[in-house]
Backbone:
């Protein structure tokens, strides 16, 4: 299948009610056409550009925007929520980045050519994918089956030599970026061995004005997957993934990645025969270890800062299916994050603070979810989740040294910037989340749903414990970034209406939501932008009340059998009700409109991507300021000269326009640019050979 179903598939993917229903189906008796196949197609069919990483790929989905800090590591935002407010998993492993400056949100570790499917659930429409995650769920997965099952033409189980092989090469002219990929599966009857890998590198890209911000990167990714379908049809699979990133430039940050080395291990047992009260069940174990080093020595002319960091996570989940449409389970995860702030003081590199002072967050969750059929046309779905969360900062009282007065404990920084004597210690949280959703289907292209949800999230390691110190610069502490160990949990209550219908021959699909948040965790400066108080100039955190509302809308029209248009729109509006100001990092009205022609072997398309001006911003910490609107154009084409060969090419940003999304961070290196601009015009292409 090719582009002809791209629009319909993306429609399926982004339609939260469908995805939520499909995903909660954990019956996995046979590899039938399920949501995994749908999304698997989608990852191949979102080929109207060469995606840099997982975040860049997600931008192809309406309602997902990204924060850009450099050429790599695009940070996805769904409904105004990013980073730890999205529950991101890689092959089921929960991944927390190892960088306290957000160089590596989870999606960064996805070299997309190595994955088969991507699933996005916007908002709180399911409780089985971990604690918190009010913005939604993002899952990257590989789907491997014995070749005897997935490839009947090649996989004669009597033959020992069944295999699949894919190789490919991509290029981008602008950054001189290229990715080489390979994917090999060896079938051994009901067992399989899959090895895949990719290597990517790119130089600094050029913006529409000819500026070349520091955006180069180099990454490699490989994985080994060993699995087997057991005699009863159950599946046992082990996978190991190695991701390596080196010399990643961030024009939008004070430092760059020297290296990030990641190992991810997964063990999965998906049982399809009854066990106790369960008709089927999933048992999964995961572990991820990350080592990260950032500095401003390696790729810049300065040499003052160096921060080693690490993030280690392990966990497991057990989910069982019972009766009709009922799932229940338990999950657990334990994350430890460490970072040490190093700075050259009086020409000696000194360890100033434990910036993530042994930050440990442990979560134990119990959940149940059920889909009930009320009538032929209507279903009621609901879920409940309880999380016991424990947080600690085991090194908050540790003194990193006594050689210099700038060497301080994390506790002394919390105390300097918050009320009273603040000592980070062990805290417990009891979090309750849940949803109820009513869906009515009137026909194949006609339905609506109404949902009400609550999502409770414990603040993350940075929000609670970050301890970055600085000297006073002109009697101000602007560079300090201090977490608040006394933050409360964030409570999101959301009402959402979704609909799908045919209007004037167009397939219209959309959702509108209102999210009322108690104790939203926000970052700010007490000086309120006046910068006249030395201590209050630091970046700190507090809980506020907030309101976020918005919509996603998609309209598809078939002009003829081969010609289609699609309009995607998304809008988010965020208010900090306590401080009576806009929330930071909120994308204005944006979207795209495309015209596509396709047959079974070729496709051509032109697309305009646009965003409105954003006048609502909070420039104290995160926003650069007001952002102008823009429209940029892409053209693309794809060819399948034979069943095994796929060739795509295109030009992105056709008019070489200089622009930046409102979410992009300030450019800290180029004086002529106020923020990290998006790439200018680029010719790109890819050639994939599958045999
Ligand atoms: Cu970093």
Residues:
């Amino acid at each position: 299948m090719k582009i002809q179903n791209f629009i319909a598939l993306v429609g399926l993917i982004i339609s939260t009610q469908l995805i939520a229903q499909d995903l909660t189906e954990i019956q996995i008796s046979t590899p039938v056409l399920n949501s995994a196949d749908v999304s698997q197609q989608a990852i191949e069919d979102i080929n109207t550009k060469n995606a840099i990483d997982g975040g860049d790929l997600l931008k192809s989905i309406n309602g997902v925007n990204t924060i850009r800090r450099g050429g790599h590591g695009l940070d996805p935002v769904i409904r105004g929520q990013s980073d730890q407010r999205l529950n991101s998993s890689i092959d089921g492993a929960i991944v927390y980045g190892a960088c306290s400056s957000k160089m590596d949100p989870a999606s960064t570790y996805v070299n997309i050519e190595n994955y088969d499917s991507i699933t996005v659930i916007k908002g709180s429409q399911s409780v089985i994918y971990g604690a918190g995650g009010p913005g939604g769920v993002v899952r990257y997965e590989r789907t491997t089956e014995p070749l005897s099952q997935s490839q009947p033409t090649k996989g004669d189980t009597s033959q020992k030599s069944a295999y699949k092989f894919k190789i490919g090469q991509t290029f981008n002219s602008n950054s001189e970026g290229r990715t080489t990929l390979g994917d090999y599966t060896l079938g051994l009857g009901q067992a399989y061995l899959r090895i895949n890998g990719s290597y990517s590198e790119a130089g600094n890209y050029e913006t529409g004005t000819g500026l070349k911000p520091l955006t180069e990167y180099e990454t490699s990714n490989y994985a080994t997957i060993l699995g087997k379908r057991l005699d009863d049809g159950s599946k046992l699979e082990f996978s190991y993934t190695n991701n390596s990133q080196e010399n990643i430039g961030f024009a939008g940050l004070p430092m760059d990645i020297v290296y990030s080395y990641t190992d991810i291990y997964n063990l999965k047992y998906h049982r399809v025969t009854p066990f106790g009260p369960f008709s089927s069940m999933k048992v999964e174990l995961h572990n991820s270890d990350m080592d990260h080093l950032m500095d401003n020595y390696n790729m810049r002319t300065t040499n003052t800062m160096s921060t080693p960091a690490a993030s280690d996570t392990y966990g497991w989940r057990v989910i069982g299916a019972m009766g009709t449409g009922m799932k229940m389970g338990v999950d657990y995860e334990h994350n430890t994050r460490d970072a040490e702030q190093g700075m050259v003081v009086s020409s000696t590199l000194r360890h100033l603070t434990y910036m993530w002072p042994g930050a440990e967050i442990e979560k134990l969750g119990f959940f149940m979810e059920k889909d009930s059929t009320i009538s032929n046309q209507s279903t009621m779905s609901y879920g409940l989740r309880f999380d016991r969360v424990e947080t600690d900062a085991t090194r908050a009282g540790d003194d990193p040294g006594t050689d210099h007065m700038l060497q301080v404990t994390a506790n002394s920084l919390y105390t300097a910037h918050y009320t009273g004597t603040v000592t980070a210690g062990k805290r417990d949280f009891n979090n309750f989340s849940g949803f109820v959703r009513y869906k009515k289907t009137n026909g194949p292209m006609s339905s609506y749903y109404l949902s009400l949800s609550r999502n409770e999230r414990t603040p993350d390691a940075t929000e609670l414990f970050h301890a970055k110190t600085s000297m006073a610069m002109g009697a101000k502490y602007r560079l300090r970034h201090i977490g608040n160990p006394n933050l409360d949990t964030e409570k999101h209550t959301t009402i959402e209406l979704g609909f799908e219908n045919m209007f004037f021959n167009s397939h219209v699909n959309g959702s509108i939501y209102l999210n009322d948040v108690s104790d939203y965790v926000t970052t700010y400066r007490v000086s309120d932008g006046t910068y006249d108080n030395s201590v209050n100039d630091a970046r700190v955190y507090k809980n506020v009340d907030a309101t976020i509302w918005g919509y996603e809308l998609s309209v598809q029209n078939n002009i003829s059998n081969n010609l289609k248009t699609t309009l995607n729109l998304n809008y988010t509006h965020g208010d900090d009700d306590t401080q009576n100001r806009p929330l930071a990092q909120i994308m204005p009205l944006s979207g795209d409109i495309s015209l596509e022609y396709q047959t079974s072997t070729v496709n051509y398309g032109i697309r305009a991507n646009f965003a409105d001006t954003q006048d609502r911003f909070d420039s104290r910490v995160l926003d650069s300021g007001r952002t102008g609107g823009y429209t940029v154009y892409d053209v693309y084409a794809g060819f399948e000269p034979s069943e095994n060969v796929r060739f795509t090419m295109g030009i992105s940003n056709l008019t070489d326009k200089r622009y930046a999304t409102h979410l992009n961070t300030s450019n800290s290196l180029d004086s002529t640019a106020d923020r990290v601009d998006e790439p200018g015009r680029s010719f790109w292409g890819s050639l994939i050979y599958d045999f």
Q: What stands out?
A: The domain at 3-298+305-690 is CATH 2.40.170.20 (Maltoporin; Chain A). The chain has one domain: 3-298+305-690. The chain is about 5% helix and 50% strand. Residues 99, 101, 103, 257, 292, 294 surround copper (II) ion (CB under 6 Å).
